[in-house]
Amino acid sequence: MISKKNAHKSSVLGLIVLKNGFVLSGSNDQFIRVWNPDGFNLVNTLVSVVSNSSGTSNSGVRDMSIVLHENEEFVSIHDDDSIRLWEPTTNLEPTFLVNSRMNHSDQVLAVTFLNNTNYLASGSRDKTIIIWDLIAMNVFKTLVGHSNDVI
Question: What's the pTM value of the predicted model, to 2 decimals?
Answer without folding.
Answer: 0.71
